[in-house]
Each structure stands twice: as structure tokens, then as C-alpha cells.
Input
Amino acid sequence: MVLSAEILNGSRLAQSIRSQIRKKLKKLNLTPGLAVIQVGDDPASTIYIKHKQRDCDKVNFHSEIHKLPSDSSQQEIIKVVSELSTRSNIHGILVQMPLPEQIDEQNVIDSIPPEKDVDGLTPLNLGNLFINREGVTPCTPTGIIRLIELSGVPIEGKQAVCVGRSHLVGKPIGIMLLNRNATVTYCHSRTENLGEITKQADFLIAAVGKSEFITAEMVKPGAMVIDVGINSLDDRLVGDVKFDEVQQVAGYITPVPGGVGPLTRAMLLENTLKLAMS
Ligand code: NAP
Output
């Protein structure tokens, strides 16, 4: 008999989070405002930003997109961040990544005031996460935690393996799982015997950016596999996990699309609201 993992439906959870936000907003005399800065014309970024703006419309948030040419200098981008920082109707500022090569992404992130840092990526907000202090946490890992919580599977004492160590996803999700008492292992491009390590994971987080990188033999039977990747392969959108074969081994799995992506956007709304209320 071929077993099939339970699918963790991110789209459905995101929808319910948006409806909770709408309800909350009705009781408040407040219009949360989100500003997104896009540098260049990366087609994937353009689609992500459109989705973010559509989500804002759905919950009656104010949103603006500030588009800059791909040859913008760091100073030009930081100037836009500074202007938005002074605006009272903008509560969250998001710089859409990736930025063009000539730009040092961290320098741009550093210019966002922590109280408007809607993706929780400034050193202060990441530091707060590190010391397990309440604050704004990065959207993608926060969404992953929500999906895990929805499943009801306990985190405490379990083995979690993060494949990927970016500031955006890999590192913070590991810290969030550690803060919830998982035993966490990070893997990256220099990791030896990767498959042996991933096979120990009760929670396997794939944030690699490589199409269908995680295969069935790398997964512990019954594990929860969270696929963060968004890659295009032969005109299809695929994750970092070989879904068809891994779902026959895993206990739980997130699909791509419809898994982590919609939750990331729902957390962006929650963080914007949180900043607007603070
Ligand atoms: P990233 O900054 O490129 O980081 C990729 C990580 O994967 C790095 O830590 C890298 O290791 C590691 N890696 C690369 N090759 C590897 C290998 N062969 N074995 C083990 N580890 C390897 O990417 P990211 O920003 O974290 O994003 C990862 C993926 O998630 C991308 O597909 C991105 O599009 C997607 N994403 C999705 C969402 C969403 O909402 N669903 C949000 C953000 C990102 P080193 O550190 O050693 O280089």
C-alpha cells in the first residue's frame, strides 16, 4: 500500500488569517499601510508584489509600490526608504528581494527603522528573535510555524533540520524551532552526508532554491516536510522537494504552490497590522 502524506494547505490557512484580520480591523479606527520597494523588473518579484497588493486590498489596508530602475544606486534606494520612514500612513516597509547585484542588501535593510521593519530582518528584530523576545519576526518562517501549529504536531524535543541558512528563511526558522525546544541542525552547501542528516528530521525545512532537491530517500518516514522553495522547471512551478515521491514517505507535506507562499503573505499582513497598532 502506498501511503500519502497529509497536505498542509497554506492557501486555506491564509484565507482564514485574512478574515480574522478583517474582523479585528472593523473594531479599530485604523488603516494599516504597507509600502513595497521594487528595484528592477524581475518578473517573479513583479508577480509576488502584485499578490501582496491584492492581499492588502482584500483586508482594506493601504498599499503602495515604489518602483526604481535596476541601475539604481544604494543611496537612491535608501533615500526612498528614508522618505517612507517619515510617513505616518506607512506602517510597514518591505524591500523586495533580490536586489540587483550592485546593491548590498544588508545595507538597505539596515536603513529600515525597526519599528517599520515589516519583514523583521533588521539587526534589532533578528536580535530579538535570537534572544527569544517578542517582536516582529520574518514573514516566511513565521508562516511556517503557523502551519506546523495548525497540524497539531508537537515541536518540543523533536529533531528539526533546516536545509538552507539564509537570513530570510533558513536561519530564522531554525531559531524559531529552537525557541520552541526542537533540536535543530542546519545544513548548507558545504554540508557533508546531507541525506543522512535530513533522514533524522522529524521536521525537514527545505529552503535551498534548487528544484526538487529533496528526494524520498532523504526523508524519514512520517516526517513533516516543509517546502519553502519556489522554482520554475520546464514551465512548471516546483518547490525544493520532489513532491510526488516525498509525499509517499512523509507524514505531512506542504505543496508548491499553495503551501508556504500564501502564509508568507498572510504574515506580511499580520506584521503590518502589528506595526500599525504599536
Ligand atoms: P538563498 O539565500 O539562496 O539560500 C539558499 C541556501 O541553500 C543557502 O544557505 C545555501 O547554502 C543552501 N544550499 C545551496 N545549495 C545547497 C546544496 N547543494 N546543499 C545544501 N544546501 C544548499 O535562498 P533563500 O532566500 O533562503 O530562499 C530559498 C528558496 O525559498 C528559494 O527558492 C526562494 O525562492 C524561496 N523562498 C520562498 C518564499 C515563500 O514565501 N515561499 C520566501 C522566501 C524564499 P550556503 O549558505 O552554503 O550558500
Notes: The chain has ten helices and eleven strands.
